[in-house]
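Subgroup meeting minutes
Present: P.N., E.W., G.H.
Scribe: E.W.

1. P.N. recapped why we're keeping a running log of single-chain structure predictions: easier to compare across weeks, and new members can see raw inputs and outputs side by side.
2. G.H. added today's entry (151 aa).
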Amino acid sequence: MGALPRLTMLERLKNQGTVYLLEKTRCPLCGDVHTAPVPEGIGDDKYDESVTAMVGILKYGNGMPFKRLETLQKQLGAPLPASTQFELLDDAAGQLGPVHQELMRQAAQGEVATFDDTRAQIIDEAERPADQDEDRVGIKTTGSPETSSRF
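Output recorded in log:
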């Protein structure tokens, strides 16, 4: 028998993996091996689209590192290596290109664009240390929120 594993992620991070056992038979005359067809609606991919979506949300929406998600998946009994997570998102990135371009277009039309991913709120300006470079004026950031009167 051949096995076609298929992993899906449902709401509330409930993992559900199904292994479809496909019967194989060998022709006694020619020796060819024939495998039963995959059930309708299942597809040939090992990972359901919801897996890629959830990994993307956890990684880029919630900041969960691939390694941490790998550990979580292993604890839940459905291993998902960090390298596989990256490959899933890398493959899906091409499909998200138009969405990214539209978000960038809309952000460019906004009134205020700021960059700040600090967790601490800066209340008062601190004195600059005497040995600090005068050209240093900010903090490295990874976010780019935008505001617009349209929304």
